[in-house]
Amino acid sequence: MRAGGFLLLLLSGCGGQPAVPPGGIISNNPCIDAVLERIAAPGQVAAVSIYSHDAQSASASLPWARRFPAIGTSAEEVIAARPRLLLTGNLATGGTNAALRRAGVTFQSFGVPANIAESKAQIAAIAKAIGREDQGSRLAAEIDKAAGFRSSSAPTRSAIIWQNGGFVAGRGTLQDEMLARAGFTNAAALYGLNQWSMLPAETLIRNPPDVIFMPIGAKGAEAERTLALRRRLLARAAPHTRIIDFPDRLAFCGGPAIIDAMDRMREAKG
Question: How far apart are the C-alpha atoms of 123 and 32, rounded to whole Å?
Fold first, then answer.
């Protein structure tokens, strides 16, 4: 076997993963994977993001994602997979994108949507790229139904989305819009936070909102202990504050996650 052929096999099967069948559509972004789960035709998807094989970082369902080989974000892995189309995030370096272009890899990049309209536009673009426009339109209609209601009365309760590491969805984020549509005032504004910012647990404990949306798990034993401790401290210090389970996957992505996130927010609103 030639050295080049051996390298190709090594790269396409690295990490114990089965080789990616060539000529398919691959995604190395977990948010895109969640969209593909809902709109792709059987046989279209050849590989998904390595993050979609991990329960802590997956946005698509694990049973669906684990039907496919997983692929990382390096140009070497993508080139070795020989895809017809790569769907990826927009955080790749210029060198990575240049390498993909030199290798003749067709790809489309998508950023983090700042609102529901941008999320639906991304779904439409992904659907068009894979020839599944009707399926994309149906998913967008489901999102419209989930997020369409907006209370006509002024919000009377404050809420915050507080994720592992202390990350908070502030003003100008997709999550900020969802909170407003669910009838909450985003408490991040009360702390003066914009976009995704850090909010120490001590600040949250001293001045808690009415509702805190928090994850139920974390990656690693130490992170799990820290999260459990913070939940106990919040429950003790703010007995009138409701702590609602809100997995990280609902805060990482738009797309189908909007439907689940809106359902959870409206349940918390009562």
Answer: 9
Beta bridge partners of 167: 198
Q: Is 32 helix (H, G, I), strand (E, B) or coil?
A: helix
Query: What are the structure tokens assigned to 224, written together?
Result: 């799990």
Q: Tell me if residue 101 falls in helix, strand or coil.
A: helix
Tell me the pLDDT band of 93, cut-offs 50, 70 and 90: low
Which pair of structure tokens corresponds to residue 41?
Answer: 């035709």
pTM of the model: 0.86
> Residue 26's closest CA among 98, 85, 104, 102?
85
Q: Checking DSSP bridges between strand 196-198 and strand 167-169, what pairing results, if any?
A: antiparallel
Q: Centre a 10 Å sphere on the Cβ of residue 149 and count the other Cβ atoms it contains.
A: 12
Say if residue 15's pLDDT is above 50: no
Radius of gyration of the chain (CA): 20
Is the pLDDT at 36 greater than 70, yes or no? Answer: yes
Is 175 in a helix, a strand, or coil? Answer: helix
Cα–Cα distance for residue pair 248/176, rounded to 1 Å: 15
Burial group, residue 151, by CB count within 10 angstroms (0-12, 13-18, 19+): middle
